Amino acid sequence: MFASLLVPFRVLLLSSFCLLAVVAQAQQAGDTVSVECPLPRVVDLCVELDATRSVDPLSGSLTYRWNMGDGTTLTGLTVSHCYKERKRYTVQLDVVEEKTGEVRLAEKVLPVDFTQETVLNFSAPDTVRVGQVLTCDAIDSQLPLCENVVVLWDFRDGHVTNGRRVQHAFRRPGRYAIRMSLRANGPDPCPDSHCVSRPVVVVQP
Q1: Whole domain around residue 30: which residue ranges?
Q2: What is the pLDDT of residues 140-167, one digit of tens each?
Q3: Which of 1, 67, 87, 102 pairs with 21 at a CA distance of 20 to 30 A?
Q4: Taking every pair of C-alpha atoms in the chain, what is the biggest distance, in angstroms?
Q5: Average pLDDT over residues 47-63
Q6: Do 32 and 68 fall within a single domain?
Q7: Residues 29 and 105 reside in one and the same domain
């Protein structure tokens, strides 16, 4: 999943920049029973940069050098890159005139902000034994436009709790679709709740 950047040379107009956010199905506040919670969909921290429309025949041969803001430098008219952390980055495009060696620094500076995406995801083991303590972690789940975010858990065996990182031990074997939901409030428009689920198989020790 990539966000596209179109960077015409000379004009250097950012015509399209969209980081895709995955939004889970909304539910009513506190409802972990009547609404189906889908599987988490992991949002890749990736961008794609395209400067093919910036080629100017009168400028001679040019090298496009992209400083991705995380210590990575890429070259080419089109490049793609995936980041490791959900942070804000600044991408700087330098253009090198191959004939003279002149470097045009910061021909374009592009902000890349992954902190404003709605993210709904959590980690949990696929299989555990009866009585074994499992740990669930909401990873970097976030509702960036909301305040007072609370992470709620429903283990589908009668046990519910809250917290970004929780533990639980099942007493009976079976297949349980653990649910994690985020609840929050404004002042800006904010969804009542979002939920996702992961299946966990509980086996006899």
Answers
A1: 3-113
A2: 888 887 888 889 999 999 999 999 999 9
A3: 67
A4: 74
A5: 79
A6: yes
A7: yes
